[in-house]
Amino acid sequence: MKSAVRYYSRSGNTKAVAEAIAKSAGVSAVSVDGAKAALSEPVDVLFIGGALYAYGLDSHMKEYLKTLKKEDVKKAVVFSTSWISKHSIDLIKTALSEAGIPVEADAFYVRNKPNDAQLKDAAAFAAKHLT
Ligand SMILES: Cc1cc2nc3c(=O)[nH]c(=O)nc-3n(C[C@H](O)[C@H](O)[C@H](O)COP(=O)(O)O)c2cc1C
Fold it and tell me: What is the CATH number of the domain that holds 60?
């Protein structure tokens, strides 16, 4: 099963989750503002995550979501971090749905900086969605 991990993170919290998911999936975690952000081939599962900033998504994530094509993503799985609100998950899911990309209902969320146990949970979450 082909997978990819894309994220945007200002202070590293979401990046840490992305890297745990990527390690579990055997791929690299790639920032959406990086040179390699575009999917190089269609994937069965795209893990995509971003945090909430002032009750919205970072503009890098918003722009990246607009570039995704349903032909390239069989299913998306969302992850996020924030202080308290899970609204970022809804915002990412909505953008994916608007692009016609099927989205897994189950999402992975951590408050602020993930600890080791939460990183293990992130890896297990990824594995669950790759079987
Ligand atoms: C400018 C700014 C605005 C934020 N706004 C919210 C918010 O509206 N709601 C919330 O729950 N968390 C908010 N947060 C907390 C971040 O979502 C949280 O620290 C997150 O883990 C940051 O992820 P990152 O390290 O991947 O950038 C905000 C953080 C910053 C820096």
Answer: 3.40.50.360
